[in-house]
Amino acid sequence: MNRDELKVLMRNAGIRPRRSSGQNFLVEEDLAKAIARAGEVEPGDVVLEVGTGFGMLTKHLCEVAGHVVSVEKDRKLHAVATELLSEFENLTIHAGDVLKTKNALAPDLIEVLRERLGPQGRLRVVANLPYNIATSLVILLLSVELPVDAIVVMVQLEAAERFAARRGAEGFGAVSLLCEALCERIELVRTVPPDVFMPRPKVTSAVVRLIPRADRHEGYRDLSRVIRGMFNYRRKTVPKAAKLAAKADSTLAWLPDAVAALGPDPAARPEDLTLVDFRRLVPPVESDGS
Fold it and tell me: How far does Cα 132 stand from its chain's mean position?
């Protein structure tokens, strides 16, 4: 589907892309194929795609996956995609939002995925993500209790660089640390210019591959709370950031004492701490004695 064909389709369906919803549709067939290949999908895999759009990427995923669950919350797009992709029996186009809240996936979507996965299924996420939810959604997908084997997504280049940033690099922050804790590998696959989308975004995009750690869920909830709490005050010294985080969230009341025990450089800021340092700030899980 080229740009002119897409314009006709949109006009006939009464669809006008909404930038507020991050609707930038692919118009480059070769790029859609390349993203599908980067997903390294195998015939037994279940694939989650967020944002069906007009199905340019979806159809290539359907050709290689065991089943594709594609999420589309726009009613008009859902109707058009259902018609365009009607030949694929291994496709579920889920009508609704991928998110329940900013910090939780939609329960009905999780139910659909678990039903398709069964007890031994492998889930791969391959998508052109809406810019406005990309960062929070990637962290959610990495941390949710689902058998996510890989995430290959197109996002804003700045977001991709933030996922992969290490301490001292430009863009390093809480998201970078959370990705380091959750992933064994993060790769920038390719950069993508604005002219492969309609409408054209004002920024460069990138395809990024994230490979989750098998043990990523162990202690992650408390680690995430500490990292986010401290980085809310990233320009403060570590002791001061800990006190402010504990004041803002009473469940972190123990954090200033943990920082004192860690004994960082008094002038250090949260961005100067390593992931190992942050792990040391998290209290050990108490055994129930059983």
Answer: 11
Give the model's confidence band at 290: pLDDT under 50 very low, under 70 low, under 90 confident, else very high: very low
* Other C-beta atoms lying within 10 Å of the C-beta of residue 13: 14
Q: Which CATH class, in words, describes the domain spanning 220-281?
A: mainly alpha
The amino acid sitting at 22 is G
Average pLDDT, stretch 178-188?
A: 97
CATH topology of domain 3-212: Rossmann fold (3.40.50)
Tokens representing 230?
Answer: 């401290």
pTM: 0.93
Q: How many residues does the chain have?
A: 290
Identical fold at 3-212 and 220-281?
no
| Residue 70: strand pairing partners | 49, 93
235 contacts: CB under 8 Å, gap ≥ 6 = 269
Q: Taking CA 51 as the corner, what is the angle to CA 70 and CA 202, rounded to the nearest 5 degrees? A: 160
Domain boundaries, the chain: 3-212, 220-281
